[in-house]
C-alpha cells in the first residue's frame, strides 16, 4: 500500500505569536521530503504537531485520505510515524538488539524469559537487508554517532513505522557516516518508507530529496519538486526581512588588534582558520551547526588543547588549554550556548550568580569584601535591566531572557577586554533580544572586543561589524559592515560557495 | 587476550586472587577448608544486602536503610519468637514487614519523586530507633531451638545451608537480570529515565519493585544474622554491613551513578569483602587497625580499577 500523510491548513499560535499559519504539508511513501527554513520559521513546530508533542489549533491530518487524531506521541507511533531527534533516545549500556526491542521484547514461548537468539536474528536480518556491518550484541556505548543514528532508525522501522522524521541528521556525522546514511536513506525509499528530512545543507537536499518545502515565519513559501528548482531559489525564499526595535549605532573601531588567530586547526572540528579581532569590534562567526565555531571559541577561552596554529591575545601567544581561570584573569569572559547547563547555578541567588567570577578580585586577605560585591551586583542588575524581585531571588525562577542577562552581567566589570558569546539569544524573546544587543553594543563602544557565534542570519547582520562564514570547520568568506549580502552568506553556510581549497 | 586486557576487564578477579595469595603467604591457615567454610557463612548477610543494593544502584538510586533495617528485622524475629515461641509466624512477619517497608520507600521515590538518598536515610534512622524501642539497649533475646540451629549451622555436602540460600538467590537474580525484560528495564532507567519512559517502560512500577526486593533482602539478611549469632540485640552494627555491601557492589564494577553492572562482578565483590574481613581477623589485626586496613585495601582495589578504567577511556579517544 502506498501510504501518505497530508497535513492540511494547520494553524498554531503561542500567545500572540502565529507559529504556524495555514500550513499544508504532505509526505508520501518512497519519497524524501526536505523541510527547510531559518531558525524560528516553524519547522519544528510543524513536526511537533505531526509527532503529537503539541496540539494544533486548526487544520486536519489525514492518513491515506482518512482524518486521524494525533493527541500524544503514542498516537503518532500507532500510525507509523517515528521521530529521530538529534539527541538519541538509546540506552548506552544495552546492546544494539536490546535497544531495538526495548519495551517490546520477544519471549520464549509463554515464559517470561527473553528470546535473545530470535531478537538478535531479526536485528541481524534488518542490518543485512541494509548492508550494515554491526554486531547486534555490541553495547550501544561502543557505537559512533552515525551507527547510533542507524540503530535508532532501525528501531523505528522494526516497530512498523513507515514515516520517519529526521531532524538535521547529519549535524554530528563524519563524511563517511554521512555517505552511509544517504545510502541507507536510498534503500529505505526503495523499500517504501517515507522520510521527512529537516536540513539546511543544500547539497544533501538536492542529493536525496524528491520534494523540498521552505517555511518562513510560520508559512509555506515554496514547495517544489527538487528537479524543478535550484539551490539558489531555495536559499532566496528562506530569507525574509524582519523588523526589530534595535538599530546599530555608528562607531569607530580602533586599529589595536586584541586577538589574532592564525592557522587554527583541530582534527574534525576546524581547519586552518585565521582572523583577527580589534578592540571595540564585534566579529560574528556564523555557519550551520557543525561549522566548528563553538569549538574555536572554546579553544580561545583556554578550554581545549591539542590544536595546531596560534592564538595571540594582547600581543602574546596563549598556551593551549591554559584553563578558564587564566582566561578570566586575563580579562576574557565567555557566555556559553547552554545557559542552564554551563551558564548559571540554578540553586544560587541572582547575587551569587553575578558575583561568582568576581569574587577573586573582591577578596582581600582571604575575606570577601561584601560591600564591593553588593555594589557590583546592583550595578549589573541596573545596567542590564534584569527583571528580578531582589538579588536574593534564586536564578532558576527567572525567565530565559533574564537568566541570559545575568550570564552577561557577570562580565560587565571594567577589567573585561574580550567577550566570547555562543548563541547569545538562543531561546529568548524579542524584547530581551533587543536588550542583549544593546548591552553588546555598549561593551564594544567601551572598547571590549566581542566574538560571537550565531546561527541566526538576521541577528548576524544586525549585530556584526564583521562576519566570517564557516562551512564544516573552514572559513568561507569575510564580510564587513555594511556590505552584508544575506543570500551569499546563506549560500556560504550551506556549502554552495566552497573555496577551491576545500575540495582539495 | 593479553594480560593488560584481562587486568582491565576482569580486574576484580585478579585483585581477589592476588589478595588470596598474599593472605595465604602470611597465614597458610587462610586457605584451609575450615576457614573457607567460615568465610562462606560470614558473608551471607553482607551478600544478601549487596544483592538487593545491586539492583537499586544499577537503577541509579541508593538504599541506605538496608543495614539497620536488617538489624530491625532480626529484632522483630526475636520478639515474635520470644512472645510466641514459634518461628513460622516470626518469619512471616519479617517477610511481610520487609516487603511493606520496601514498597513504601519505592512509592515515595517513584511517585513523589523524593530522592532515594533522603527517603532511605530516614528509613535507616527509623529502623534504628524502633529496634531500640522493642529491645532496650544492653538487652538481648536468645534464639534457641531447631530452626535457628538448622538455618545457622546445617551443612549440605559440606556447604552451609545459609550460603546455598545466598547462592540460590543470586542465581535467581542473575536469570531475572539477564534473561527477563526486568533487567533491561532497570539498566534503561539507570541510564536515562526519560528514554526508558519513551520506550514504554513503566518506570514507577519497576522502581517500586526494586525497593521491595531490596527490602526483602534486608529481611533475609536479618533472619540470617539472627540464626548465625543465636541472639539478637539492637546494638548490632547494621551500618557496617551496609557499607561493606556497598563497597562490594562498587568493587564488583557497578557504576555508583547507575546504569551499568553485572551480577557476576557483584559476586566477586562480595567474595573480596568477605575474604578481607576474614583475613584481618585471622591475622590477628587489632580491632582499631582492622578498619584502617580495610580502608587501605578498598582504596587500593578501587584505585587500581579506576586508573585502569581511565587508561581504557584515553585509549578509546
UniProtKB/TrEMBL annotation, chain A:
Any one GO CC term of the record: plasma membrane
Primary residence: membrane
Family matches, as Gene3D superfamilies: P-loop containing nucleotide triphosphate hydrolases (3.40.50.300)
Domain annotation ABC transporter: ranges: 5-242, 241-497
One Gene Ontology term of the molecular function aspect: ATP hydrolysis activity
Taxonomic superkingdom: Bacteria
Membrane topology (UniProt): Peripheral membrane protein
Keywords, sorted A to Z: ATP-binding, Cell membrane, Membrane, Nucleotide-binding, Repeat, Sugar transport, Translocase, Transport
InterPro entries, alphabetized: AAA+_ATPase, ABC_carbohydrate_import_ATPase, ABC_transporter-like_ATP-bd, ABC_transporter-like_CS, P-loop_NTPase
Subcellular location: Cell membrane
Protein name per its UniProtKB record: Ribose transport system ATP-binding protein
From TrEMBL, chain B:
Membrane association type: Multi-pass membrane protein
Matches recorded under InterPro entries: ABC_transp_permease (IPR001851)
Annotated TM spans: 12-32, 38-57, 64-83, 89-109, 116-136, 156-177, 208-226, 263-280, 292-309
Cellular component, GO annotation: plasma membrane
Keyword Transmembrane helix: yes
Main localization category: membrane
MF annotations from Gene Ontology: transmembrane transporter activity
Coiled-coil regions listed in the entry: none
Record key words, sorted: Cell inner membrane, Cell membrane, Membrane, Transmembrane, Transmembrane helix, Transport
Keyword Iron annotated: no
Location relative to the cell: Cell membrane
Protein name: Ribose transport system permease protein
Organism: Yoonia tamlensis
Amino acid at each position: 500500500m502506498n501510504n501518505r500523510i497530508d497535513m492540511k491548513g494547520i494553524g498554531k499560535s503561542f500567545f500572540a505569536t502565529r507559529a504556524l499559519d495555514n500550513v499544508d504539508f504532505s509526505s508520501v511513501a518512497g519519497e524524501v521530503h526536505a523541510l527547510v527554513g531559518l531558525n524560528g520559521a516553524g519547522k519544528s513546530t510543524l513536526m511537533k504537531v505531526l509527532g503529537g508533542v503539541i496540539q494544533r489549533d486548526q487544520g486536519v491530518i489525514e492518513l491515506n485520505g482518512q482524518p486521524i487524531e494525533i493527541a500524544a506521541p503514542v498516537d503518532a507511533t500507532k500510525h507509523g510515524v517515528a521521530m529521530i531527534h538529534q539527541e538519541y533516545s538509546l540506552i548506552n549500556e544495552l546492546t544494539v538488539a536490546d535497544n531495538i526491542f526495548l519495551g517490546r521484547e520477544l519471549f520464549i514461548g509463554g515464559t517470561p524469559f527473553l528470546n535473545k537468539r530470535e531478537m538478535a536474528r531479526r536485528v541481524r536480518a534488518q542490518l543485512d537487508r541494509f548492508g550494515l556491518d554491526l554486531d547486534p550484541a555490541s553495547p550501544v556505548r561502543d557505537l559512533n554517532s552515525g551507527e547510533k543514528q542507524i540503530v535508532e532508525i532501525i528501531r523505528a522501522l522494526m516497530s512498523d513505522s513507515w514515516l520517519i522524521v529526521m531532524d538535521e541528521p547529519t549535524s554530528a556525522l563524519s563524511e563517511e557516516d554521512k555517505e552511509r546514511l544517504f545510502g541507507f536513506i536510498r534503500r529505505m525509499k526503495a523499500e517504501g518508507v517515507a522520510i521527512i528530512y529537516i536540513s539546511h545543507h543544500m547539497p544533501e537536499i538536492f542529493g536525496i530529496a524528491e520534494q523540498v518545502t521552505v517555511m518562513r515565519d510560520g508559512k509555506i513559501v515554496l514547495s517544489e519538486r527538487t528537479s524543478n528548482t535550484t539551490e539558489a531559489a531555495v536559499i532566496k525564499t528562506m530569507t525574509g526581512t524582519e523588523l526589530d526595535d534595535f538599530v546599530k549605532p555608528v562607531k569607530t573601531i580602533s586599529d589595536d588588534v586584541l586577538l589574532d588567530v592564525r592557522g587554527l586547526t583541530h582534527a574534525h572540528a576546524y581547519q586552518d582558520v585565521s582572523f583577527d579581532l580589534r578592540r571595540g569590534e564585534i566579529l560574528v562567526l556564523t555557519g550551520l551547526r557543525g561549522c566548528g565555531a563553538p569549538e574555536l571559541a572554546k579553544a580561545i577561552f583556554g578550554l581545549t588543547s591539542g590544536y595546531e596554529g596560534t592564538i595571540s591575545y594582547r600581543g602574546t601567544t596563549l598556551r593551549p588549554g591554559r584553563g578558564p581561570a587564566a582566561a578570566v584573569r586575563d580579562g576574557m569572559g565567555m557566555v556559553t550556548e547552554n545557559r542552564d547547563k554551563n551558564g548559571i547555578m540554578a540553586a544560587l541567588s541572582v547575587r551569587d550568580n553575578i558575583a561568582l567570577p568576581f569574587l577573586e578580585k573582591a577578596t582581600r586577605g582571604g575575606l570577601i569584601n561584601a560591600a564591593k560585591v553588593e555594589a557590583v551586583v546592583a550595578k549589573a542588575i541596573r545596567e542590564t535591566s534584569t527583571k528580578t524581585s531582589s538579588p536574593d531571588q534564586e536564578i532558576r525562577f527567572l525567565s530565559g531572557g533574564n537568566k541570559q542577562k545575568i550570564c552577561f552581567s557577570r562580565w560587565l566589570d571594567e577589567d573585561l577586554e574580550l567577550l566570547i558569546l555562543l548563541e547569545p539569544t538562543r531561546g529568548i524573546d524579542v524584547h530581551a533580544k533587543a536588550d542583549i544587543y544593546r548591552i553588546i553594543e555598549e561593551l564594544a563602544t567601551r572598547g571590549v572586543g566581542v566574538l560571537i557565534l550565531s546561527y541566526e542570519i538576521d541577528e548576524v547582520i544586525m549585530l556584526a561589524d564583521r562576519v566570517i562564514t564557516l562551512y564544516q570547520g573552514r572559513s568561507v568568506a569575510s564580510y564587513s559592515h555594511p556590505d552584508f549580502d544575506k543570500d551569499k552568506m546563506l549560500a556560504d553556510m550551506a556549502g554552495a560557495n566552497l573555496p577551491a581549497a576545500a575540495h582539495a | 587476550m593479553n594480560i593488560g586486557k584481562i587486568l582491565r576487564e576482569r580486574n576484580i578477579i585478579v585483585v581477589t586472587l592476588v589478595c588470596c595469595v598474599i593472605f595465604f603467604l602470611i597465614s597458610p591457615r587462610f586457605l584451609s577448608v575450615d576457614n573457607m567454610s567460615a568465610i562462606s557463612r560470614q558473608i551471607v548477610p553482607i551478600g544478601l544486602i549487596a544483592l538487593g543494593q545491586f539492583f537499586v544502584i544499577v537503577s541509579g538510586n541508593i538504599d541506605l536503610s538496608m543495614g539497620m533495617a536488617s538489624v530491625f528485622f532480626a529484632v522483630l524475629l526475636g520478639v515474635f519468637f520470644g512472645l510466641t515461641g514459634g518461628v513460622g509466624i516470626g518469619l512471616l512477619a519479617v517477610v511481610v514487614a520487609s516487603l511493606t517497608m520496601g514498597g513504601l520507600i519505592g512509592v515515595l521515590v517513584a511517585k513523589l519523586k523524593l530522592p532515594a538518598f533522603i527517603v532511605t536515610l530516614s528509613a535507616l534512622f527509623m529502623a534504628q530507633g524502633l529496634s531500640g524501642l522493642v529491645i532496650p539497649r544492653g538487652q538481648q533475646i536468645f534464639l534457641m531451638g531447631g530452626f535457628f540451629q538448622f538455618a545457622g549451622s546445617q551443612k549440605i555436602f559440606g556447604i552451609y545451608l545459609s550460603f546455598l540460600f545466598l547462592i540460590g538467590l543470586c542465581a535467581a537474580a542473575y536469570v531475572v537480570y539477564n534473561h527477563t525484560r526486568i533487567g533491561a528495564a532497570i539498566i534503561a532507567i539507570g541510564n536515562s529515565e526519560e528514554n526508558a519512559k519513551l520506550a514504554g517502560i513503566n518506570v514507577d512500577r519497576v522502581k517500586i519493585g526494586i525497593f521491595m526486593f531490596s527490602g526483602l533482602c534486608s529481611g533475609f539478611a536479618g533472619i540470617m544474622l539472627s540464626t548465625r549469632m543465636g541472639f539478637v540485640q539492637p546494638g548490632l552494627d547494621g551500618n557496617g554491613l551496609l557499607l561493606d555491601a556497598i563497597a562490594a557492589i562498587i568493587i564488583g564494577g557497578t557504576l555508583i551513578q547507575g546504569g551499568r553492572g553485572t551480577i557476576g562482578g557483584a559476586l566477586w565483590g562480595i567474595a573480596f569483602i568477605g575474604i578481607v574481613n576474614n583475613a584481618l581477623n585471622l591475622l590477628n589485626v587489632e580491632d582499631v587497625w582492622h578498619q584502617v586496613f580495610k580502608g587501605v585495601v578498598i582504596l587500593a582495589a578501587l584505585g587500581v580499577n579506576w586508573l585502569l578504567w581511565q587508561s581504557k577511556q584515553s585509549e578509546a579517544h
